Amino acid sequence: MSQCAKWTLPSAQILLLMLSATSLVTGACGRMDTVADASSVGEAAVSFPEPGDEPVRIPDPVGEAAPVQPINPTPIQPANPVPSNPETSSTALAPNPQNAAMKDFERRVIELTNAERQKRGLSILTVNAHLLNNCRQWSANMASRRSLIHSNMDFGGENIAWNQSSPEEVVTSWMNSPGHRANILRTGFRSIGVSMVSSNGPYWCQQFGW
Fold first, then answer.
1. Residue 91's beta-bridge partner residues?
2. pTM over 0.85
């Protein structure tokens, strides 16, 4: 500054020199920035923050809500259905409130019997485990004795038959016989059991309960 003070220059020239000096400094800083940028190309990827620098979070723009990510709820898995037991399942014409185990042909005879009652507006009969057991025992008894005879078991009514090959055939046979038909269509009966043993037969037994 002392040297500058000895110069006798007009104020306009002094101002011009000051501006030129400022331009030189700015240019130097710019070149340093340029050199620094060029050198970072080869080393690319590493950033070295100055000590004490903390990352600054850029706030979200005002008025623009961040996008909401959809929530995918876990689908509810249906409970595993309990498989029905074909031996104890009920059908519309063979209701089985006691869950008594039945053979397919036993259930079919009961369904056909109840179908005959339903045609005439009568209530259908429910499966009864005690009567089922009675019929199984008596069918086996008849087969072993080779004799078609009524039992003295506990029942309200009983139909027996021999040598019919299917449920359809035996129910048709009973419906064509006045006494057996009367048992099938009796209004007071509420329960039913039936069975068949094929040896020496088949031997069929059907019992009704109040």
1. 94
2. no
Q: Which residues of the chain have pLDDT under 70?
A: 1-84
Instruction: Please say whether the dihedral angle defined by the alpha carbons of residues 8, 14, 17 and 18, taken in this order, is positive or negative.
Output: positive
On the question of a cis peptide bond just before residue 75, with omega within 30 degrees of 0, the verdict is: no
20 class by beta-carbon count within 10 Å (0-12 exposed, 13-18 middle, 19+ buried): exposed
Question: Which segments of the chain does DSSP mark as H helices, in order?
Answer: 2-6, 11-43, 104-119, 129-145, 167-175, 178-184
How far apart are the C-alpha atoms of 133 and 193, rounded to whole Å? 8
Determine the pLDDT at residue 35: 36
Q: Are 160 and 206 contacting, i.e. CB atoms less than 8 angstroms apart?
A: yes
pLDDT, position 62: 53
- Side chain identity at residue 52, one-letter code: G
Q: State how far the Cα of 210 lies from the Cα of 60, in Å rounded to an integer.
A: 83
Residue 162, strand partner residues: 203
158 in Cβ contact with 198 (< 8 Å): no
Compute the distance between CA of residue 59 and CA of residue 76 in angstroms, rounded to an integer. 39
C-alpha–C-alpha distance, residues 135 and 119, integer Å:
25
Cα gap 59→38, rounded to integer Å? 31
